[in-house]
Design a protein that fits this description.
The chain has 388 residues and is an alpha/beta fold. It contains 13 helices and eleven strands. Helix 7 crosses helix 8.
């Protein structure tokens, strides 16, 4: 008993020693390292392209609220700063009048020039102020870093704008502007007690670019944070339809597709030749139906069942006519029938009790059965001495 306890204690000490040695070895050879892994934007950031700008303004102490276009027109905000991520000219004169009255009472509207002012004949809300959008031929990634001087600040602020979009002040009524290489990147208009700020693009305030250059500071100065009051951000991303994209980027190809579609629909309604008379159904012979039925049953492997039933019916007909066949064994019975039909006993036994393995054997045995059946029918009604 004492030896067993000693062995158990030694085993426990050994296990503890090994565990301690492994712990020392593990911590001597491994170390805990913190590593930052970029996982991309969160779901909330993908839905809200101005999330970074919104959080930055909140840290500065501004009152920021994100709304959708539907919520905006349902409950229009009081006098504040209203910033659109994707501005579309209000539909209808009533909404245009509401937006204009809001500006005249002291609101500050910040928008990106929409497609309505990009043609030769500008239309929409911004067209009333003489704003026109010009699209350049520069590379899509080319940017122009403008040095902007804000009122009350000596040091300029660096903001990057796209080289593909520039603004034009048609009527020359803008009170402030940021000039680019081919036009303006920002135009400001005084509207009553309020102000309208039109941008050529707003990439500098989006989540991907807000941390570059002086973009965050430029946004804060633009909205007047934190002394500028409440800021409403309309961050709803309005994607144009497929037809609008096709017409905007490839009007010639889109027009050709519409013409081709119209010609295709028109050609489908035209007849290329005379109408053919309806084809009449041809009547088929009963023999063809029987042959098709036989082939169908053969494919379904039902020939074995029909053949076995025919064998039984033929043999039962002979036994019913000749009562002497009933007690006879199979060999004597086949020999008895063979004498009366002129066939050998082996052929009769094969016809009444054999099986076929091929289509040729099936035809041969069926012929023997037909012979046995025909002779039996021919002898029907005659007296048979052997049966008496």
């Amino acid at each position: 008993m004492g030896d067993q306890r000693m062995a158990t204690g030694l085993a426990a000490v050994l296990v503890l020693a090994l565990g301690g040695w492994f712990g020392v070895w593990f911590f001597d050879n491994f170390e805990q390292v913190e590593e930052e892994i970029t996982v991309g934007f969160s779901e909330k950031a993908r839905r809200n392209p101005l999330l970074g700008a919104e959080r930055f303004l909140l840290r500065l102490g501004s009152e920021v609220e994100s709304v959708t276009t539907t919520d905006l027109w349902r409950d229009f905000p009081p006098v504040a700063t209203l910033l659109f991520y994707d501005f579309r000219s209000p539909a209808g004169e009533r909404r245009k009048r509401v937006l204009r009255d809001w500006l005249e009472t002291g609101g500050h509207l910040i928008v990106v020039a929409d497609e309505g002012v990009s043609g030769e004949a500008p239309v929409g809300f911004l067209a009333e102020f003489g704003v026109r959008l010009k699209k350049g031929q520069s590379n899509a990634t080319a940017v122009h870093t403008a040095e902007v001087t804000f009122a009350g600040r000596k040091a300029p602020v660096k903001i990057a704008f796209s080289q593909r979009r520039h603004l034009e002040d048609v009527d020359g009524e803008a009170t402030a502007a940021i000039e680019g290489e081919e036009g303006y990147h920002l135009l400001q208009y005084e509207v009553g007690d309020g102000m309208l700020t039109v941008l050529s693009d707003n990439l500098f305030m989006t989540n991907r670019h807000i941390g570059k250059n002086d973009h965050a500071l430029g946004l804060a100065l633009l909205v007047g944070a934190p002394e500028g009051g409440q800021v409403w951000m309309v961050n709803e991303v309005v994607m144009p339809s497929l037809l609008e994209l096709a017409w905007g980027y490839a009007p010639e190809a889109a027009g050709a597709m519409f013409v081709l579609l119209g010609l295709s629909l028109w050609s489908m309604g035209r007849r290329l030749g005379p109408l053919r008379p309806p084809a009449g159904g041809e009547r088929r012979d009963i023999g063809e139906h029987l042959q098709a039925s036989a082939q169908f049953h053969w494919r379904l492997d039902r020939a074995h069942g029909m053949f076995k039933a025919t064998q039984q019916r033929t043999e039962q007909a002979w036994v019913a006519k000749h009562l002497a066949l009933r007690p006879m064994p199979q060999a004597e019975r086949c020999a008895f029938i063979a004498k009366r039909v002129g066939l050998s006993a082996a052929v009769v036994e094969r016809a009444l009790h054999g099986e076929f393995r091929s289509e040729d054997e099936f035809i041969t045995l069926s012929g023997y059965l037909q012979t046995l059946g025909n002779i039996h029918v021919a002898n029907k009604g005659r007296s048979n001495d052997a049966s008496r």
